[in-house]
Amino acid sequence: MNNKVLNFGEILTILLFYPIAEELITRGILLNKLNKNRTFIISNIIQAFVFSILHFNINTLITFFIFGLLLGAIKRHGGILCTMVIHILRNFTVYIMIVYEITFPNLSRWFYLFYGILFFFLTGVIYTYFKKYDISEENKKTSLSEI
């Protein structure tokens, strides 16, 4: 382990506050507002761009843009709670990799490719779970209005 271990408040901020706030801002507010007068594809591209800019890192701009596109598509079908869970898990795995210095200098490209495929698979599992049990805002609205 290295000296990058954070205190409890920093961990909560990185693992809970930031992902939830980013999801509410980019997919909850921005994507919904853009969808009112644009196609979903254009709206999703704009929100993904804003999401990538929010991270203030030119080196990871494309990575965050693609992640934003993926989360936008998932939000459309699985709801914002689903994207929050995926975002929190992604931040958690990156935090663990940083704290435990999980890097392979000679195999870094293969490792990160494997990590991306694994994370993409886990995203599919989470999305499937949310769809199977219909855990979404639309279902909650329907069931609440029936009461």
Automatic annotation (TrEMBL):
Transmembrane segments: 5-21, 41-71, 78-98, 110-130
Segments forming domain CAAX prenyl protease 2/Lysostaphin resistance protein A-like: 9-92
Keywords: Hydrolase, Membrane, Metalloprotease, Protease, Transmembrane, Transmembrane helix
GO MF annotation, one: endopeptidase activity
Pfam families: Rce1-like
Gene Ontology biological process terms in this record: CAAX-box protein maturation
Keyword Transferase: no
Entry protein name: CPBP family intramembrane metalloprotease
Organism: Mobilitalea sibirica
